[in-house]
Amino acid sequence: MAFETIIVDVEDHVALIKLNRPDALNALNAQLVGELCTALEEADANDKVRCIILTGSDKAFAAGADIKEMSTKSFVEVYGENLFAMVNDRIIAIRKPIIAAVSGYALGGGCELAMLCDFIIASDTAKFGQPEINLGVIAGIGGTQRLTRFVGKSKSMDMNLTGRFMNAEEAERAGLVSRVVPAKKLLEEATSAAQKIAEKSSLTTAAAKEAVNRSYELTLNEGILFERRVFHSMFATEDQKEGMAAFLEKRQAQFRDK
Ligand code: HXC
Which UniProt keywords apply (predicted)? Predict the structure, then answer.
């Protein structure tokens, strides 16, 4: 499908999706959100793709929901269309790993979009924030929920109540991002991480993603049981036999997703 607000490129088993509304700092309007969800679903269904990278421009990953588009909507409209439910629900349904490669602003819906990915690699120019409070609203796709689970109550309250931005160093310290790299190296680092993931069995990467995500939904004991049962189920795969045999034979494993 041809897209106007994003650019999609598939190479070496990695789908790179680049948000591309430079005049609006990649603000998330209805078109972009729709195209992004479609591209993610296409990548999820594409056998050639084993990992997905979501990125923006040097200046902005995404500066939030499109304020111009939202500003005149009524309660009846936003409640009626369940504004932003779709983006949350369609992205959490993606089974392949998604890495957010964030440079510049990741604000409001942009920060929430990054948090919807499986992990965030940030450039040293990245700035994260939930500044919705300045617009007379609150976060709407996880800024009060996922952010609180990722960085704790105190920092989340600080971000959501003052609207201040966190730089990359603070975001890494707080556990929001997994690594920080110089801006010029951002895509190289994200691609190298994606290629490492692409070398694994896609059965085990999907299982690992599912198990980590369950930790946000289950009690510790239930989560541990879920993890153990998934671990047990891996022994039904050829890739478990291959992975362990390759270790013992001191060679590289050749996974076949079986
Ligand atoms: C629509 C936006 C936008 C946005 C920037 N632009 N952010 N348009 N929605 N969220 C547009 C500007 O209007 C401007 O267009 C162009 O992008 C460049 O932006 P500037 O402000 O001129 O750039 P700069 O001075 O460098 O400031 C960058 C900035 C600032 C700090 C990121 O743009 C900013 O504060 N943006 C809004 C951030 C925000 O509040 N996000 C939360 C949105 S609410 P023109 O045409 O004037 O050149 C939200 C709700 C989520 O996300 C709830 C559910 C999703």
Answer: Fatty acid metabolism, Lipid metabolism, Lyase
